[in-house]
Design brief:
Distance between the termini: 31 Å
Number of domains: 2
GO molecular function, one term: hydrolase activity
Low-confidence stretches: 1-31
Helix content: 25-40%
Pfam families: Phosphodiest
Largest sheet: 8 strands, mixed
Organism: Nocardioides kongjuensis
Keywords: Signal
Strand content: 5-15%
Bound molecules: zinc ion
Protein name: Putative AlkP superfamily pyrophosphatase or phosphodiesterase
């Protein structure tokens, strides 16, 4: 069991709760006492996926993403990124911590987007920061990261005891999926995080929504399809595995840029569940506690909130039967419905 330093106020609250709960069943701190259930979660982030690509490629060019998001799963193509930045590492850190970005507002503080900064998330935030990895690990589960950019070393560096396996193959999308599929067949982690970077890589090189960008999305579509096929063909996974898919940001058609956080092409992303127990549904129809944002960019004060990419940490923990990441923001009540 990993010992985690927690803010004193949380300890005090937990202590108070345990007095209040006594002498009945232990309900004081779900995150510390719950054990993971028998399920598996595979979280997939398609880096730089502008949902327009799903329409442009159609069901012929992107059969698997369309299947997952629109035809079989519970999905939407109108979720939102983080508000402060539409950049890769800050958004992915929100996905695994459930926090916003800005450190002075309780965010994780990761505002850089390369691998020249060697700080941890905790150093960026200025205090302890837990994650989906620490929660799964504490609850007796295992975790794995499969990523295609070197900056993703941040996760293992920040949670060395909670990231059990870390596969980073720079710009090798097929290789990381091969490693994942091999692990799924033999010894699947409770929680796997997969980052597929090719659409972003080609978007920066040739421009978003260009023919080569669309080809990159089609390539990733095949890889996502191979993960779905692996789940379906593995008896120990078929009936208890949920794939959760989203993106860190989109990208502006015809440009090589996705850094304008107020541009809808950048802040609109897909968010979808697929797998055991997941109905075929529009994710907003399944979630009256979330509001379709239309073309807008709702702020922190909006109520209800739109579905956001940062919800992936706490909803994954919810699927696994354990409580939210301490001091997180997105889906902290774990009320995002996935079934
Ligand atoms: Zn990028």
């Amino acid at each position: 069991m990993t010992h985690l330093r927690r803010p004193a106020v949380v300890l005090a609250a937990a202590l108070a709760a345990s007095f209040l709960a006594a002498p009945g069943p232990a309900t004081a701190d779900r995150a510390d006492t719950a054990r993971v259930n028998e399920k598996h979660v595979i979280a997939i982030s398609v880096d730089g996926l502008n949902p327009r690509a799903l329409n442009r490629l159609g069901r012929t060019g992107a059969p698997n993403l369309n299947r997952l998001i629109r035809d079989e799963g519970a999905g939407t193509v109108n979720a939102r990124t983080q508000l402060e930045m539409t950049l890769t590492l800050p958004n992915h850190t929100s996905m695994v911590t459930g926090r916003r970005i800005k450190a002075s507002k309780g965010g994780h503080g990761v505002t850089w987007n390369d691998d020249t900064v060697t700080k941890t998330v905790q150093q960026a935030a200025g205090h302890e920061v837990d994650s989906v990895f620490t929660q799964v690990h504490e609850a007796g589960g295992t975790t794995a990261v499969y990523a295609t950019k070197s900056k993703f070393w941040l996760f293992e560096r920040s949670w060395p005891k909670a990231v059990d396996k870390n596969v980073i193959q720079v710009e090798k999308n097929a290789a990381v999926v091969k490693a994942l599929r091999s692990d799924l067949a033999s010894d699947p982690a409770t929680f796997s995080f997969v980052h597929l970077g090719r659409p972003d890589q080609i978007g920066h090189r040739d421009g978003w929504m260009t023919p080569t960008y669309l080809k990159a999305v089609a390539q990733v579509d095949k890889l996502v399809g191979s993960i779905m096929a692996q789940v379906e063909s593995t008896p120990s996974l078929r009936n208890n595995t949920v794939i959760v898919l989203t993106s860190d940001h989109g990208g502006i058609p015809g440009t090589r840029n996705h850094g304008i956080r107020t541009n809808r092409e950048d802040y609109r992303v897909a968010f979808a569940f697929w797998g055991a127990g997941v109905p075929h549904a529009d994710l907003y129809a399944l979630n009256p506690d979330r509001a379709k944002p239309g073309r807008t960019r709702p702020g922190f004060g909006a109520s209800p909130q739109p579905i956001r990419n940062g919800e992936i940490a706490n909803v994954s923990l919810d699927i696994l039967g354990i409580g939210p990441v301490p001091d997180s923001l997105w889906d902290r009540d774990q009320d995002l419905a996935w079934k």
